Amino acid sequence: MNYRPTRPARSSAPAIARASAGVFRDLAQRTKFMDPALAERWPQLAGEKLAALCRPGRLTGRGLGRTLELYVPHGAAAAAAEMERDGLIARLNAYLGPGSVSRIAIIQTGKATKAPTRPAAGKAETAGGDAELGAALASFRAAIHRRNGGK
């Protein structure tokens, strides 16, 4: 008896990097995101002080002489980034290649660049130096903690 399969053999699955590259590229273009490697190295490229004030956006343009969008939360951060512009362009060109970035566009977003830190759980929070309110909040928090059985 002659055996013939009813379906053709399946080809192997594509490599995950190749399959996801197009999806991530399209997503990056729609969300105006930039190179993940640049985001990862941003504190080293910009310096700790400047990296805390701003975050990189996308690189616009093609080839040499592209523009980097730099997102800052307020005018003071924009002024600090403006003062560091030439040095930042030099460090970016050293990392990306000579002449890669010729301009930096500073965009004020009005949003913080990093998530705000939460105060410690044991400390009383005060609003505008109001110690009485802080004590009341701490008492309320302790009562909730006791009611939940220390959870």
Automatic annotation (TrEMBL):
In this record, what's one Pfam family?
DciA
Task: Look up the domain of life of the source.
Answer: Bacteria
Name assigned to this protein:
DciA family protein
Species of provenance: Hyphococcus aureus
